[in-house]
Design the sequence.
């Protein structure tokens, strides 16, 4: 394995865990970020990702992405780029696998609905919720709540945070107050997320019939890569053509990201992670690719995420979350008594609902509300 660049997060200089733990022996043991990854994979919240909606509801088909397969795709893209940039691949993997742990059931609809319910009670932020999952909602250790992950993994998980909540997070919240950057590994996981969802949503959108192949020609990135594919494979059509084009798009996005990031790193010349944190963001697409990726994002927003059929699902999901929230507000005894009994009631309800899978939320709704 190539050695890490000086601006990568080095495993042996991690800022450590909240609760100190013995280091594993260097020869046979895992480094701190490999341990973080393993803890994330063994967590309950990670297994629940399989039954949480990415865009399409879980029961709509066997081949659509869910939050688990999405997270695996993010980790795959993130690791491949990390290797090329000599960044810490283990850290990128850990952040990628954990980045969506705080998501509610029913995708963004669920999140917006829960945020609405929590408007007067501190709000709901899914990035902060992901941090809370690994910091205290997982109950697996005899000595502490949460997974006790390394600082750098937690930094990467907390992609966004409101200024108000940042005040409560000590060192981890400082960068939102001071306008500083996280590590390059965290910046990379963020863009790997974008590359993954843009591309798998095209695939899922076409698979579902909500997007047509012809309609995709509106998008420059698609058009350009489709031309290249059709020149190499005249007459190729249907699913194989879609896969080839999506593969090509991922490839050009990754290639552009690597090249632009290398240039920015060369210009800024950071010599350590501390230097990286003081710079503007260094992991980025070139100007043209940023425009094209944004065009693709806008296209998906308009034609897929706001498609009438998706809107209908969204409306039902929001109604269900609001109904559950109102129900637990009136009947807190319907929350299991051992679930966060000391929390303030609204935050307790929010944690409980956020942790639900789509099907568990459905089941609770049927049992408690439509009985
Ligand atoms: Mg994501």
Sequence:
């Amino acid at each position: 394995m190539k050695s890490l660049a000086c601006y990568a997060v080095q495993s042996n200089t991690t800022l450590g865990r909240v609760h100190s733990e013995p280091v594993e022996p260097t020869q046979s043991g895992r480094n701190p970020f490999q341990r973080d990854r393993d803890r994330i994979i063994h967590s309950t919240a990670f297994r629940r990702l399989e039954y949480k909606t990415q865009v399409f509801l879980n029961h709509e088909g066997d081949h659509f992405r869910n939050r688990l397969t999405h997270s695996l795709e993010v980790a795959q893209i993130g690791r491949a780029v990390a290797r090329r940039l000599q960044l810490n691949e283990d850290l990128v993997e850990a952040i990628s696998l954990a980045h969506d742990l705080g998501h509610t059931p029913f995708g963004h609809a669920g999140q917006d609905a829960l945020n609405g319910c929590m408007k007067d009670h501190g709000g709901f932020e899914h990035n902060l919720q992901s941090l809370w999952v690994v910091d205290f909602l997982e109950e697996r250790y005899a000595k502490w709540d949460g997974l006790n992950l390394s600082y750098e993994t937690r930094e990467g998980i907390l992609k966004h945070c409101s200024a108000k909540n940042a005040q409560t997070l000590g060192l981890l919240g400082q960068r939102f107050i001071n306008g500083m950057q996280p590590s390059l590994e965290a910046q990379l996981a963020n863009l790997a997320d974008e590359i993954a969802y843009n591309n798998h949503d095209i695939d899922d959108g076409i698979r579902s019939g909500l997007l047509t192949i012809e309609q995709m020609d509106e998008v420059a990135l698609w058009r350009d890569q489709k031309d290249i594919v059709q020149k190499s494979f005249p007459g190729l059509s249907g699913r194989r053509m879609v896969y080839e084009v999506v593969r090509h798009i991922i490839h050009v996005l990754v290639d552009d990201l690597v090249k632009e990031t290398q240039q920015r790193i060369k210009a800024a010349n950071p010599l350590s992670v501390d230097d990286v944190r003081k710079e503007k963001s260094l992991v980025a697409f070139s100007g043209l690719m940023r425009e094209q990726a944004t065009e693709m994002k806008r296209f998906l927003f308009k034609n897929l995420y706001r498609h009438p059929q998706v809107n209908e699902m969204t409306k039902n999901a929001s109604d269900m979350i609001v109904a559950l929230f109102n129900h637990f507000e009136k009947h807190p005894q319907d929350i299991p008594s051992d679930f966060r009994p000391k929390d303030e009631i609204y935050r307790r309800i929010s944690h409980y609902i956020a942790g639900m899978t789509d099907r568990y939320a459905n089941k609770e709704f049927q049992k408690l509300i439509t009985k």
